[in-house]
Write a structure and sequence with these properties.
Number of helices: 20
Strand content: 5-15%
Strand order of the largest sheet: 4-13-12-11-10-7-6-5
């Protein structure tokens, strides 16, 4: 029996069946129903034996193709039959289901008790109060605009994160923007420019400007003040965001192949039709931290005094510190800073960039918040946060660490029908969210999905209000790190204020460095250059004459149990 079952057995069987059924078909035409499939499989076996690309098909003709078939359907099998409710790939079924329920106005309550292991490392909770508060208005808003802003904007604390037309389909953009109108919140355009789909329903826009200057560039790809002013002064544009980097691929530019640069995309980006559209890794409008802030001031003036800010993922700490020092040197501040975590999303990114480049949101957000406190400028600048924010607790956590508002990209994608098929980069999105295929887009009905966008936003704010009531607070701005607790290794518990200590106002101005990142990184920063003043590795190894600041033992924060 063992000798009969060889790697060619399946091929021999289909050949034999093809011959037998073909002979029978010569007697009765009905046998062709069986003969033709086996003839096709026989031809497939011949192709398998003669092709040179796949060794497994040459060694196992016909049956070897099953390996590629099962590999093709593996993601669907895993998602529907094997994936646990709390497995994050990258979002868990529990997270996705929560968005679907809130978007569809379905019951989002659960019976019987938590499914989470409350004694596992990393488990987090918000500490409640004996005196719950009363909250009448859940439309939580903040005012964005510093001392040099003449058109401050009242912004919801929960908004649509930066996603470009081109990465998203036309119907997806329409649904998101109409949902923003219905829910009275803002829609970030992404760096792909302002398309006519963004403008159809008149939803408030945060215009994202990347290194390609799409929508405000000249014929050479350089920043055009005239074209910027023309678009920035449109009433629908409420804020302008200079994108320095994004979480899923910080430090990387991009190219949109000419075949994808349709007339609609070309019009939104101010680029030639059917030609490669390049987004460089770095900006050409500025080269130093001081020049960046001068660019901020220029955009604020050209826009007629609207809020102008920056979006970044933290990388080298001294580069962020250089921007902070430039604020002190010039007295120019952005009206807001959006901190994007390394866990942020993208339509396509190299695996190494997605998995191993950039600082995660919590650490990056806390560094930005503490730096602004340390230089005495926190009151002038609002902070937004983005990176895997789905639920009200996700919002509460980052707002406790210093965020004034939250952005969500993939959360709102789920609201308009995304099923996490992970085919965003192929143009074959099964729900029409991330494709430019006009037939696939038609599956996404704008009138229905826009209602879901507004419902998801509203119901998430309701849930946030319930958390705040339980904690005895009345607004998200009341949240502080001590309100959130986390179980760390060995079963110990810390509040976030112990894991992410505060800085005192003006502390950095007094050269008091209680935390290592400031003690090591702050002296390296130069407001006139993104380059460090010296090599940190060489200084720490004693290979230079640089004297690193000494640790302030008395001021070092002590981590204690609750």
């Amino acid at each position: 029996m063992q000798r009969l079952l060889t790697r060619y057995t399946a091929f021999y069987v289909v050949l034999f069946a093809a011959v037998v059924f073909s002979l029978l078909a010569l007697q009765n035409a009905w046998w062709w129903v069986l003969a033709l499939p086996f003839i096709a499989l026989s031809l497939l076996g011949v192709v398998d034996l003669t092709q040179t690309r796949h060794a497994i098909r040459r060694n196992y003709p016909v049956i070897g193709n099953l390996r590629f078939f099962f590999e093709f359907i593996r993601p669907e099998i895993r998602q529907y039959f094997m994936e646990g409710d709390d497995q994050e790939l990258p979002f868990s079924r529990a997270d996705r289901s929560l968005v679907y329920q809130r978007a569809k106005q379905q019951e989002d309550k659960q019976p019987f008790g938590t499914k989470q292991d409350v004694y596992s490392t990393g488990y987090e909770w918000i500490n409640h109060s004996m005196l719950p508060s009363q909250i009448k208005d859940i439309n939580f808003r903040i005012t964005v605009g510093g001392p040099d802003c003449t058109q401050p904007y009242s912004l919801s604390v929960f908004n649509i994160s930066a996603m470009s037309f081109g990465a998203l389909s036309a119907n997806a953009v329409l649904a998101l923007n109409r949902g923003a109108v219905l829910g009275n919140f803002a829609h970030d355009t992404g760096e792909g420019g302002i398309s006519h789909y963004h403008k159809k329903y008149g939803g408030d826009l945060i215009w994202n400007i990347g290194s390609g200057y799409f929508g405000c560039r000249d014929e050479k790809g350089q920043f055009s003040p005239e074209r910027f002013a023309e678009r920035a002064r449109q009433p629908q544009v409420k804020m302008i965001e200079i994108k320095l980097s994004q979480g899923a691929k910080p430090g990387q530019g991009g190219i949109l192949p000419g075949a994808k640069v349709t007339p609609e995309i070309a019009a939104a980006r101010d680029v030639p039709v059917w030609q490669d559209c390049i987004s460089p890794p770095q900006h050409s409008a500025f080269k130093t931290p001081v020049e960046l802030l001068q660019f901020v001031a220029q955009l604020r003036e050209l826009s007629g005094g609207k809020p102008v800010g920056i979006k970044l993922t933290i990388g080298h700490a001294w580069e962020w510190f250089a921007i902070a020092k430039a604020m002190l040197k010039t007295d120019i501040t952005p009206d807001f800073i959006v901190v994007d975590g390394a866990e942020g999303g993208t339509g396509a990114s190299p695996v190494e960039f997605m998995n191993h480049v950039g600082v995660p949101l919590l650490e990056g957000l806390r560094l930005v918040h503490n730096t602004l406190v340390g230089i005495g400028m926190r009151e002038r600048i609002k902070i937004g946060a983005s990176g895997k924010i789905i639920s009200a607790f996700d919002m509460a956590r980052v707002m406790a660490l210093g965020a004034d508002w939250c952005n969500s990209g993939r959360g709102f994608m789920f609201a308009i029908g995304c099923i996490q098929a992970l085919t965003c980069h192929t143009g074959k999105c099964p729900t029409g969210v991330t494709t430019q295929d006009p037939l696939r887009q038609k599956a996404l009905v704008v009138s229905d999905k826009s209602l879901r966008v507004a419902s998801y936003h509203n119901n998430t704010l309701k849930a946030l209000a319930e958390l705040l009531r339980a904690a005895g607070l009345t607004h998200p701005s009341d949240l502080r790190p001590h309100h959130i607790a986390r179980r760390i290794a060995n079963g110990e518990v810390r509040v976030l204020s112990a894991l992410f200590p505060d800085l005192e106002k003006g502390e950095l101005l007094r050269n008091e460095f209680r935390q290592t990142v400031f003690r090591m990184g702050w002296p390296m920063a130069n407001p006139d250059s993104f380059e460090p003043e010296y090599s940190l590795s060489a200084a720490m190894s004693g290979l230079t004459n640089t004297q690193l600041p000494q640790k302030n033992e008395a001021a070092e924060p002590v981590q204690t149990n609750i």
